[in-house]
Design a protein that fits this description.
This protein is mainly β. The protein has one domain: Porin. 9% of the residues lie in helices and 50% in strands. It has helices at 37-50, 52-61, 209-212; strands at residues 2-5, 80-91, 94-110, 113-117, 122-126, 132-135, 138-150, 157-167, 180-191, 194-205, 215-224, 230-241, 250-264, 270-282, 297-306. The radius of gyration is 22 Å and the shape is globular.
């Protein structure tokens, strides 16, 4: 087991314990001259990048090997590029497709930290009063810090903290016109081939709180590992709006899906794919005074390249 601290930033998140090293060797009587500052800086930076994948391997080797769920972000520290899609039915004859879902590139700068650089999701709405297409707001960074971990052989659990941030870069139809800050926690516990993962986060808009409102997003995942590549799952995805136009309201979805991977491609490169179907469980669909749930159902897909 190793202890650490993550999130990231929006976004958003993961760091382990440092190992102190000492030596009993005698100190030479003649101390060699110190290298110049430029040599030290170049050598240190070069060493840092040359040992990059060693740190990634250490991060992977000291945590469970669960596949990342379809909707909930994984509590694991991983290095990958991820592109997801969602094709949602908002209501009859009104659909909203999202390409990217803001996932993006995740890097592991040290053994317990992950930094995700999000990509702007591209949305297409058909039907209704405001059809249109364009980029939505950018979840530009998320930092995760791993707090506690144990491999499948040593306890099979994981706890990670994260912090994410979003920027109002979207077109007028899809922007909230404010920056957002989102702190949260991930966790999970496994028993053999079965694991349960959960997360909870709070989104704070910097401006226009009275309209957008703060929201709490919680996820619960039940996942099973079959053979080498099959990861069937069921997720529950809940949102509660603290205030704003949806203040006091909530919505609950269930997602049934299957993740396949990790398929070895070249050297370190591995591919994972998955798909699932998401259905609103509650409340009963309403459009006045606001639309809740925000959509009725959705087909979700995921594509990931890990390295």
């Amino acid at each position: 087991m190793s202890a650490t601290i993550p999130l990231t930033v929006m976004m958003l998140m993961q760091t382990g314990g440092a190992v102190a090293q000492s030596s009993d060797a005698a100190v030479p009587s003649t101390v060699p001259p110190l290298p110049s500052d430029s040599t030290t800086e170049q050598g240190g930076l070069g060493t840092y990048f040359s040992e990059w994948f060693q740190r990634v391997d250490t991060a992977l080797a000291t945590q469970p090997s669960w596949a990342a769920p379809l909707i909930m972000a994984t509590p694991r520290i991983v290095e990958l590029f991820r592109f997801d899609t969602s094709m949602a039915e908002v209501r009859t004859n009104v659909n909203l497709d999202n390409y990217g879902l803001g996932r993006g590139l995740s890097l592991v700068p040290n053994e317990t930290t992950q930094v995700t650089l999000g990509i702007p999701p591209y949305e297409v709405r058909t039907g209704g009063r405001q059809p249109g297409a364009g980029f939505a707001d950018l979840p530009f960074i998320t930092v995760k810090e791993r707090l506690f971990t144990a491999t499948e052989q040593e306890g099979n659990y994981l706890v990670t903290a994260f912090l994410g941030a979003g920027a109002p870069t979207g077109v007028p139809l899809y922007t909230q016109n404010t920056y957002t800050i989102t702190p949260g926690l991930y966790g999970g516990k496994g028993w053999g081939r079965f694991d349960v993962e959960a997360s909870s986060s709070v989104s704070f808009p910097v401006e226009d709180v009275a309209h957008i409102g703060k929201s709490i997003v919680s996820n619960l995942v039940f996942q099973y590992h079959i053979d080498r590549i099959f990861w069937p799952e069921i997720e529950f995805n809940h949102t509660y709006w603290i205030d704003g136009v949806r203040g006091g309201r909530s919505q609950l979805f269930t997602t049934i899906g299957l993740v396949l991977g990790r398929f070895e491609l070249i050297d370190r490169l591995k591919m994972t794919v998955g798909a699932g179907y998401q259905v609103a469980l509650s409340p009963a669909f309403i459009t006045r005074p606001v639309v809740v749930p925000t959509y009725r159902n959705a087909l979700v897909t995921t594509f990931r390249l890990s390295f």
